[in-house]
């Protein structure tokens, strides 16, 4: 597997419309086989796969047209996700039309009128936040926003580590995936839920380097952030995309219910199947999303 320098990475990613960002090989396992006419490289020791993503309903080896993508396997946690995504966005010309982060997440307890997600469900993030960037105090936990810490300045306003997703983009993606969940009867969908009708949610998500494994902590996080799901990379990817002005979506399959840690009850493969299927459904319907056209690259290449 070759390592790519800056020039090589730029050349290899020409024509790629979408970056699919995952943390682990397991999360890439159901996407990689659908890539055609591409290659595999190393970027600072991290795996990057390139190719045309076959439509969800098509044989990966058939001739039905697909979308050219970068499948980037960052490694777990915020720094890894931010590092690899920065490497890509720094050199890709033209920039991708969309960064789509896919993977597993834990579902937080229900708060207020929120319907809780369950194992096998799909969650599309409407907002991401660094839930562990802040300070404990005798008066309770204080967020970066409450402390006035400089996390990211966007359009003259400090984010405080909270990154709202584009509402129109989330709404369109939610409609695409929900319609596919209702009507698609492919084998890929059958792997998501036995009844072939996965529930699809859109709601706030949070990101932490520490996986929450105590029920009381899970309830406190859910109430503090009014969030549906917890992952280890989402806010970092949203952060980088905001800095570079690249549209961002995050799609998570639910692998576990956040509470007292019981790893034996996690269903990682089912969650990966859900996230991978939803990811492919979105990429299949890229023309239905409110995304900018890909600008011409150096020399007039699109």
Descriptive notes:
It is a single chain. The protein is an alpha/beta fold and 302 residues long. The protein has a single domain (2-292), classed as Rossmann fold. It is 30% helix and 27% strand. The chain contains 9 helices and 15 strands. It has helices at residues 6-13, 25-28, 78-91, 144-147, 167-183, 187-190, 215-225, 234-244, 268-284, and strands at 2-3, 18-22, 35-43, 46-53, 67-73, 98-107, 122-130, 134-135, 142-143, 153-154, 157-158, 162-164, 200-207, 229-231, 248-257. Strands 6-14-13-7-15 form a 5-stranded mixed beta barrel. A two-stranded antiparallel ribbon has the order 8-9. A two-stranded antiparallel ribbon has the order 10-11. Helix 3 runs parallel beside helix 8. The longest helix has 17 residues, at 167-183. The two termini are 27 Å apart.
The structural domain count equals 1
The major beta sheet can be summarized as: 5 strands, mixed, barrel
Q: What is the percentage of strand-forming residues?
A: 25-35%
Helical stretch tally: 9
Q: Any low-confidence stretches, pLDDT <50, length ≥5?
A: 189-195
